[in-house]
Specification:
Layout lengths: L6 H4 L3 H4 L4 E3 L5 E3 L10 E2 H10 L6 E5 H22 L8 E3 L6 H11 L5 E4 L2 H7 L9 E4 L5 H9 L6 E6 L2 H14 L4 E5 L24 H13 L6 E5 L9 H20 L6 E3 L23 H19 L5 E3 L4 H4 L3 E11 L15 H8 L9 H20 L5 H24 L5 H7 L3 E5 L3 H4 L1 H6 L5 E3 L9 E6 L8 E2 L2 E2 L4 E2 L2 E3 L9 E5 L5 H4 L10 E7 L5 E7 L4 H7 L4 H17 L8 H12 L7
Parallel strand pairs: 4-22, 5-6, 6-7, 7-8, 8-9, 9-10, 10-11, 11-12, 14-16
Antiparallel strand pairs: 1-2, 2-3, 4-13, 13-14, 13-21, 15-21, 16-17, 16-20, 18-19, 22-23
Helix pairs in contact: 4-5, 4-11, 7-8, 8-9, 10-11, 13-14, 14-15, 21-22
Length: 629
Amino acid sequence: MPDEQPLSDSIYGIDRWSKGLVTVLPNGDVALCDPANAQTAPISLPGILADLQQRGIASPLVLRVKSFLEDQIAHLNTAFAEAIDRTGYKAPYRGVFPIKVNQQAQVVDRIVAFGRQFDYGLEAGSKPELVIALAHDLSKDALIVCNGVKDEEFVRLAILSLQIGFNTVIVLESPKEAEIVIQVAQELGIDPMLGVRVKLTNQIGGKWQSSSGDRSAFGMNTDQLMRVVDRLRGAGLLHCLTLQHSHLGSQVPDVNDVRRAVTEACRYYTELTREGVPLTHLDLGGGLGVDYTGEKRAAENSINYDVAEYCSNIVETVGYAMDEAQVAHPVLVTESGRAVSATSSMLVFDVLESTLYDAPDAPDVEPEDHHLMSDLAAVSGYLVPARVQECWNDARFYRDELRALFRRGYIDLRQMARAERIYLNLMARIKDIVRASEHTSDLDDELKKIADVYHCNFSLFQSLPDVWAIDQLHPIVPLQMLNEQPDRRAVLSDITCDSDGKMDKFILADEIAPSLPVHSLPEDRPYYLGVFFVGAYQETLGDLHNLFGDTNVVTIDLRPDGGFDLLHEQEGDTIAEVLSYVEYDPADCLAAFRKMVDEAISRGRVKSSDRKTMIAAYRDSMNGYTYFE
């Protein structure tokens, strides 16, 4: 008889989406695996949190794992190198990391340090990002690719950086931008390194399809492209144009879209070469997706390919197109940010309390209660598996009728409270019957929609903005007790006072569900949840809804002995820091509060002896964490 599938896989599908980075220990703890040391024992994530708690680092927090980030960089670069070697492609791969995907210094610093061995560079889409890139010691062959709208100051800094050894490529986005570059280059007397961004007509599928095709925001159409080529030729700078940038799209779900877009990009490349443009680099932008759900299919939060297949398709397609056109193979560049950084971080938070939509017992019906109360309570007498659907229908009908009577003033508040308790007890018993059944039914789907609410110590808007804004899915799993059958289902509510601050779509082993299987909250220890693959965009895009600031951030390295080293701690925002972001001076706030306390003392509303306590409480709050402590 085959081994029974672990609960962590059969319920949460951890084996499908974890990429071998996450597993579950026999004691039910979620554990992290070191991809660089397969023989190292996985380390308990609740154990890491307990250790951090002893050091004074509380949840909610973002946990970054150094080896996860390094593994993805190595995987991408190695996959391209193997595809190049296998196909006989005659130029190297030079990837760049888009800083916009995760601008945090600890992330960019580690990408640069580990990426040096692969000549891995950076992509800057703004002046601040270029400033970040130029503060890093890149390898001599690494690129800095400058995208986005550029003014004279941006262009001047990019050109001047060539003199100290950077390979800074200015990608021309429009004819107007070309004029700015020509003007600054002539003023400085320095030949720039130039690229040109070409809009492809091929449009990808998926959530970000608008980032591709000829209606995408950036780049030039064919007419603009030829005008820029002629203008550079006339200015004596055509020899500087060595890179073609053609963005494939973002989070491309279907590998065949990759093939089609690359084929079109190659047509532009070979035709530009025939026009006398001395191209040497082909930048295919972003597109390499992340399989958040583990479904391995072309869907909004999944992809139907892996990194090796993506790299092989690009190398084979470009190589064939160039050979057919008798054009030298270009250096291949991609700007894969999501695939590099997404898996390296996770958000961890504790559940503060729960609102349960069932009850363990029911009150007796009292003599003066409305007859519908007796009808509702009587459902219990015929609640058996064979009649569970009937009982569900009856319970909802009688409950709704009683609510209508309450609204019209025919029953009082205490009767309504008893009715709700009887109904919730029936729901608990119906859930038990359905859970014990081996067959799924429409009722099972209905019960998932009346899940409990678990109130959690985090802000959706600050830490998971894409979940709120564009329905991005991330794997979410309880971090403990996964050796026990979950006995409840819940939606997750954050700590903000906003009805949008909730999560009600979850990746499970066999579906995207409206509620998450969870356990009854233990009384003697925290109950933690982990949101995985949050290393791309989430830290950068977070906002200050309800003035909840950045969480604590911790970077760790997994040791071969099964322990971990704390590499870096970034304390989360204090209330004073958050107030300063929205134009308040914390000192002015304290002074105003102190004045009001003194006025209250003068009026006799506050004792003089209480002044110190009140001001200290205000000051302590100003210096405290914005989240529940």
